[in-house]
Amino acid sequence: MFFVYLSIGIYWGSDRSVLASDAFSQFSNFHASFNNVLHGKESILYTWNASLGLNYWSLISYYLGGIFTPLVFFFNNQNIPDALYLLTLIKVGCAGLAFWYYGKETYKIAPWSIVTLSVSYSLMSFITAHSELIMWLDVFVYLPLVILGINRVLEKGQSKLLFASYLLLFISNFYFGFMVGVFTVAYFFVRLLIEPKAYTKRIIPYFVTSFLAGISSMIMILPAVMDLSTNGETLSEMTKFKTEATAFWDIVMKNMIGVFDTTKYGSIPFIYVGLLPLIFCLFYFVTKKITLREKLAYGSLFAFLIASFYIEPLNLFWHGFHAPNMFLFRFSFLFSFLVVMLAGYGWESFTKQDRGHFVSICLVLPIVFVIAALTSPKSSYDYVTPVNLLITILFILLYLTAIIFFQLKKISPKRLAFLLLIMVTGEAFLNTSYMLNGILDDWNYASRSLYSEPYPSYKKLVDQADKDNKEDFYRLESLAPISSNDSFNYGYSGVSMFSSIRNRHSSNFLNDLGFRSRGTSLNIRYQNNTLFMDSLLGIKHNISDQMVNKYGFTSTSKSGKYQLYTNEYAMPLGILTDDDLYKMKLPKNDNLGAQTALVNQLSHLEEDYFSFKKPTVVDTNNTDIIKKTNNHVLYKEQKPNVAKSITYDIFVPAGNQAYLSLFPSNFSQLESSTATVLSQGTSYKSQINITGQYYNLGYFEKDTTLRFTLELYGTKEVELIDPPVVLMDTNKYQSAMKEIQQKGVDFNVDKRKASAKISTPEDSVLMTTIPYDKGWTVKIDGKKVPTKSLEKAFLTFDVPKGDHTITLSFLPPGFVIGVSLFFIGLLVYGCYYYFSTRKKENMVSIPED
């Protein structure tokens, strides 16, 4: 793995980093935030630096669990790319080490042959093709150990390894823990079916050990499950029987060397684990030395996995009935493990006398690969090249030649084992090279400079914002984001986030208020909304590499090419209002109407803040403008790979903030379509289907005729609702914000707690912009009060008249129970192990007559 990375220019300190796909936007930032936690800067239970606020313990359970993650402690956040590089190598290496230990304890084959299988296992295509998804790699360390633990329970009645490996597996990643849990229970029953008389007595020890490991792992799993279930996560609907994109020859094609289709949408399972393991696995099923019962038992496990590749309900089952977003067939590594596991048993049964079976397999396999290549539709497997086929056949013939020389006694068993190791390592190197180059083509490994270069300037401005606000809570957002999760890395509270662990209720509410967060709310973006939402959410600062022409924002600091802007109308974390807040009706599909309703309720005004004007097209470039029905307009390119450019004129009256509203008629057609608005010397670019619709044109103190340009790029055509210019009356905005500021409540935030002193002349409702979560406890003058939610999104509660001290504290729902179960599980298992061991010793010590 080290040398393949080196071959594509990735090494310690290299400019090209391991940050491909989600590693750049998610994992690097999440590991940086965990580094902050380890250094005492944040709470391990709650973070304010994730889309207004988030249950951090739940985030850890999916992204940051495991025994390897704490190694980030020894890195600073600017060098997280090196940390992830090191963690990747360590995890892949430990996966090989774990399988080597399993093989050493399981197979009666040459030591070098066990190393050969461990190389194949640790460099299977699933691992290397998904190597950028670093939180998945822990599972491959524990899978062989769990299987070995089951073997020890069955064969020796020893349960320590099973308990420890199950516990570490579930704590590391509950998602993959579920898949391995299902597979290993099936494996247990397969072994039970093979030798029911010998192993029936082991049913109770296995399930007691597994149950207690599961109970102990509730410290991570229970809070995560409760968080997912209470914060809007839903199961996927079953709408079809057959899985998408799969075809007849998938199993054959994906067992060739170097076959990489994609890890985006439309991929088929990654199941390659090496040709030699495949050959010995097939040998396992054809040799007469293995009983038919064993073959049928393990064959049924293979059949179930293969059926799961093609049958959508089974596929969804493996994913917890939640369809994956890209990186499909996430359980396919179990197929690879089963191949290499049975290969060990096949190898164990292989002798010099087994010429016919082995030779037959090595001759039939190339024929099957050729038939698959010749008969399959070109469109189904266009990523499988003649080179893949030829090198696959070549390696099969090399293995065949080596075995024949061994059977003819031309080479010794030790030399054969070492020769096969060299060849398998070469094959694994070649396949891994294909996989990592596939990632490079599919996602690209980001340059280190994209991540690290802005860090000093960014961090300096964030630290300055902290200094300016002293102990009062504030939020900050970037108009020149490095990634969608910058707030995790730099330690500020913002709006943007891209995470599978999120509060969907708050994101949906913010979407209704103009921040883009569509579908399952996997993404939420700050860019392209109005001043109202800046102020209501307490966005006190913006960081930008260009002039910020927003009313009430002034430049207060500079570092490198970036400037820090301060918003004088930013609200504090809490706002006092009345019970009418809960009666407020926000219009659907009208985010400006929703903003108006919320602002008027909080300010007790009745104003219209927005007006709409039609801009005049004065020039176009590479663009055909086609008017359609229902006020839709189609912008079609004349030449490919050139931006579609439209220049407009608009008259903006004095005292208005102007926005261009861009709303697509069909989001699904705009996956890669970007919009850039050039106005008054600024040029902000964003992806149309991800960011909001209000592109800032600037604030105008005087009457102005503005000329601005819209550039559309990335798709041949873009269909939008005919774009109007939205004018926001800043005088009315200022009046409303001053009214609301008088009712603001400043909070001091310290890790998972927040506190404030408040004085109110009448009974009131305190609305906070903290995402509502059942984990929050609110106390007024030391007495607990019930919490309420605004639209299931914001935390609110009643405050009686008078002077009060308010304290808020967060504890993940299920955390206390989970911690209790952790210790109960350990204690009960300790007692169980002690008494079961003592019972065995007593039985052994009884003398025979």
TrEMBL record:
State whether keyword Transmembrane applies.
yes
InterPro entries, A to Z: Uncharacterised_YfhO
Transmembrane stretches, by residue range?
Answer: 56-76, 83-103, 109-127, 134-154, 174-194, 206-226, 265-286, 298-321, 327-346, 358-375, 387-406, 418-440, 815-835
Report the Pfam families cross-referenced here.
Answer: YfhO (PF09586)
Source organism, top-level taxon: Bacteria
Keywords, alphabetical:
Membrane, Transmembrane, Transmembrane helix
- Name used for this protein in its record: YfhO family protein
Origin organism lineage: Bacteria, Bacillati, Bacillota, Bacilli, Lactobacillales
